[in-house]
Amino acid sequence: MRLPTILGLIMLTTTIAACGQNRSTSTYSPNPASGNSDERELNDPERSTLWDIFDRSTAEQTTNVNRYLWAASLDILNFLPVQEVDPFTGVIVTGYGTPPGGGRSYRATVHISDPALAARSLSVALQSSGGAPVSAATTRAVEDAILSRARQLRIADNKF
User: Fold this and answer.
1) What's the whole-model pTM score?
2) Which residue from 33, 99, 109, 128 has the least number of CB within 10 angstroms?
């Protein structure tokens, strides 16, 4: 009974060892005519192994989003139907909607790229349903409204 257990452990160890990366210090030669093709395959940076599961450096990076800008964007653009929201990348995509007291319908895409409460963290893109270009002043006015509302939310949050 001990012999099958020992053989099983040896086979398991050999299998796991075969999945490992080549940790040699040999250099990669970009010229395919020079060097061994097996060596090039082992040093390929795109190659993945079983051990990549445990490597935290290859984990997907996420952007921290400023919560005040996020809430202010949803608050200011509440007249637009939300189509897609991704709080990990900081993107809000809305459908077409008409602002209160306006005659044209707009669609907005908001990107919050930084955790700082700053104008550089916010990017708003507007589209009109008629295909007419949206003026830079209108886009700037929406960005200013979002930034003002975010500052109001931050001030209100610090008062509790």
Assistant:
1) 0.61
2) 33
